[in-house]
Write a structure and sequence with these properties.
317 residues, 12 strands, 12 helices, alpha+beta
Length: 317
C-alpha cells in the first residue's frame, strides 16, 4: 500500500510539474492509472484531495487556477519549485537550530525537526548550541488558535480564504473574504495580514477573534502581494507598535507590568494607583481592554471613548 501511494504521488507530481497549463481533475484522472481505478467520483475526489495535500506538505508548490469557464485547474510551476544550492556556515546553522527550538511546542514542530534533519544530511555543519549550554530560558512561540494551521497553509499556497471574524467592538462576528499574505506574532498574539476583498483594502486580523473554521476558496489572488518588510510594518502599525502620540492612563499599583515597561513616565497617585504616560498608536485601545478594571484612561478623549466602546461590547455578551 505504501509503495502504491508513493507511486501515485510521484505520478501526480510529474503531471503537475510537466504541464504548461493548469490541468483539471478530469484530465488528471485520465492521466494517472491509480485514479482511473478509483471507482466512483467521490472516491477519486477524496484520493486526489489527500494526495494534493500530501504533496504540499512535502514542499511542492501547487497553484490553483480558475479558467474563464469557471473550471478549476492545477499546476506546479518549475520556477516555483526549484531552489538554489544551500550553503550554510556554523553561525547560520546555529540560527536555524535556535529557530527550530521555537516551534517545539507548536504545530510546526515536526516540520521544523524534519527540515533540520534534511539540511544536516545535505552537509549542514553541526553547530554548538550555545543557547542551550549557557541559558536556562528557552524560546517559545505559543500557537493555540485553531485558525493558525489552515491560514499558514493558505499563505504558503496563495489560496483565498473565508472566515467569520469578530471585531473587538462588535457583538457578533461577520464573514470576511481574504487573500492571506503572512502571519506575524506580536506581543504574544498572532495576526494575519492580507487583502480584504469585500472592503477592497489591506487588513490585519487577530487570530483569536476568528470564529469557526477557516475555509479555502478556489481561484487566484486579485491583489498583488507586497514584500515581507512592508507587510510586517503593516501588522505592527495595526497592532499598535507604531506610536504617533502619547496617552495618560491610571494603572492599579502592582499590575500591568507590560504597560509599565513601555511607559515614558510613571507617577504615584496614592490610594493604590499610578499615572503612566505611554506611547499611543493604532491598537492601543484593544490592548488596554485586556487589563480590565486595573486601567482607567485619562486622555486623550478618543482613546477613552474607544476603550469604553470595547468594554460595552464585551459586557453585552
Amino acid at each position: 500500500m505504501a509503495i502504491a501511494k508513493a507511486e501515485r504521488l510521484m505520478n501526480l507530481a510529474l503531471c503537475l510539474l510537466g504541464t504548461r497549463r493548469p490541468l483539471s481533475k478530469r484530465e488528471l484522472r485520465g492521466s494517472i492509472e491509480a485514479y482511473m481505478e478509483a471507482g466512483s467520483d467521490e472516491s477519486f475526489n477524496r484520493m486526489f484531495e489527500r494526495d494534493k495535500d500530501d504533496l504540499r506538505e512535502l514542499g511542492l508548490v501547487i497553484e490553483t487556477v480558475e479558467n474563464l469557464d469557471g473550471d478549476t485547474g492545477y499546476l506546479a510551476r518549475r520556477d516555483s519549485n526549484r531552489l538554489p544550492p544551500i550553503t550554510l556556515d556554523a553561525e547560520e546553522a546555529a540560527a536555524l537550530g535556535l529557530a527550530a527550538k521555537v516551534w517545539q511546542q507548536a504545530r510546526l514542530a515536526g516540520a521544523a525537526s524534519g527540515a533540520l534533519q534534511k539540511l544536516r544530511a545535505a552537509g549542514m555543519p553541526e553547530a554548538e548550541d550555545a543557547y542551550e549550554v549557557h541559558s536556562a530560558l528557552e524560546p517559545r512561540i505559543p500557537v493555540h488558535e485553531a485558525a493558525f494551521e489552515p491560514l499558514m497553509l493558505a499563505c504558503r499556497d496563495r489560496r483565498p480564504v473565508t472566515f467569520d471574524y469578530r471585531k473587538a467592538n462588535a457583538a457578533r462576528p461577520e464573514q470576511r473574504q481574504v487573500e492571506p499574505w503572512t502571519l506575524e506574532c506580536w506581543r504574544g498574539h498572532w495576526y494575519l495580514a492580507g487583502w480584504d476583498r469585500d472592503r477592497g483594502a489591506e487588513r490585519v486580523f487577530r487570530l483569536s477573534r476568528i470564529a469557526g473554521r477557516v475555509r479555502s476558496r478556489a481561484g487566484a489572488f486579485t491583489a498583488s502581494v507586497p514584500d515581507v518588510v512592508t507587510v510586517r510594518e503593516t501588522v505592527e502599525s495595526w497592532a499598535g507598535e507604531t506610536a504617533t502620540r502619547t496617552a495618560r492612563i491610571r494603572l492599579r499599583a502592582g499590575s500591568g507590568y507590560p504597560l509599565r515597561s513601555r511607559a515614558i513616565s510613571v507617577r504615584e497617585l496614592g490610594d493604590g494607583w499610578d499615572e503612566l504616560e505611554i506611547p499611543y498608536g493604532h491598537g492601543l485601545d484593544a490592548w488596554l481592554v485586556e487589563f480590565g478594571p486595573d486601567v482607567v484612561v485619562r486622555e486623550p478623549a478618543d482613546l477613552r471613548a474607544d476603550v469604553m466602546d470595547r468594554l460595552r461590547a464585551v459586557a453585552k455578551d
